[in-house]
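I am still getting used to backbone structure tokens and would like to learn alongside you. Would you supply a protein for us yourself, any chain you care to pick? Start from the sequence, derive the backbone structure tokens from it, and show both lines together. Go ahead whenever you are ready, and we will take it from there.
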Amino acid sequence: MDEQEILTEVKAGNTTAFERLYDCYWLKVYNFARLYITSSSEVSEVVQDVFVKVWESRETFDETKNFDGFLFIITRNIIFNYSRRYFNELNFKMTALRGIENSYNIEEELDAADLKNYVDRLIAQLPPQRQRIFKMSREQHLSNKEIAEQCAVTEKAIERQITLALKFIKDNLPLFIVFMG
């Protein structure tokens, strides 16, 4: 089969002829794409996308015309789309980084550190057993069941101690807010 016969068969929906077409042209598309795209996985995606597009548009191409030109146009357009997407992603990442950089505020960081110190002082005021249970929960990230086993009490008792600790902290936080405001 010559190229024109293969193209006629592809146009008619013959998948075997399409495989032959792919075998004849994939390396050309691959090498052309490598000129513009550095990632070999993206180059492979371009090749795949090009031949998907060829298959999808098989009914519209003229098998008597230059298939190389048709293939070149499809490949060029897909490479442009990949490049555009890459630059859009890069621009988005840079914008996000600038936003994070601009939103960083040393005063907020100091306020957060002050708040943590204040909460730590509040925790230190808790009764020893409640303080121990609260730290096991929040700092060691133990489950209520694990804490109950270590303290030889019920899970319900652990829940109660944590609830009381949280209530004490919440009740005393307004003082911090008034002091810092």
User: Anything to note?
Assistant: Residues 106-180 form a domain with the Arc Repressor Mutant, subunit A fold (CATH 1.10.10.10). The chain has a mean pLDDT of 83. The two ends are 84 Å apart (CA to CA).
